[in-house]
Amino acid sequence: MNMSLRQLFAPALLAMALMPMAFSAQAGHHKNHDGHGYDRAQMAERMQERRQDAYQRAELSEEQRAALDEAHAEHRDAMLSLREEHHARVAEILTEEEQQALRNAMHEIHAEAYDEKARSQRGHGKHRHGNHSEPAEETSTE
């Protein structure tokens, strides 16, 4: 079976390209009140409180709550392990400088997309396209 270089490296390149975007999306949602980093323990406590509130509203038994908490902990541990494996694999492919260049490029792309979304929503309510004060052009297929 002969695979081209493109077919061979496409999955790895896609994963590398998406990784910084995932990090930047995650980073924007986890800043503390000062706008710097986040407190993992505080965030974990807040999420646990929300889960407990949901369990209570759903009227789950103590046994169900304990089983769900255990499943959540196992899932979190598995995700952390997978993330570490992914970081190690990326480190095998790219140097630190290349990883930083890729992260910077993805941050720029993320910021541009965020700015574009903010511009398109400013003054247009929740509408995303076009000037809604003018009638839309009709297209015909005659």
Task: Report what the structure shows.
There is one protein chain. The chain has 142 residues and is an all-alpha fold. It contains four helices and no strands. Helix 1 crosses helix 4 (96-121). The chain is extended and about 55 Å long.
Summarize the structure.
With about 140 residues, the protein is mostly helical. The protein has helices spanning about 5-30, 40-55, 60-95, 95-120. The model is unreliable at about 130-140 (pLDDT under 50).
List the SSEs and their pairings:
Blueprint: H1 5-29, H2 40-57, H3 62-93, H4 96-121
- Beta content: under 5%
How many beta-strand segments? 0
Q: Please provide the ordered H/E string of secondary-structure elements.
A: HHHH
Shape assignment: extended
End-to-end gap: 50 Å
Rg result: 22 Å
Relevant terms:
142 residues; mainly alpha; 4 helices; disordered C terminus
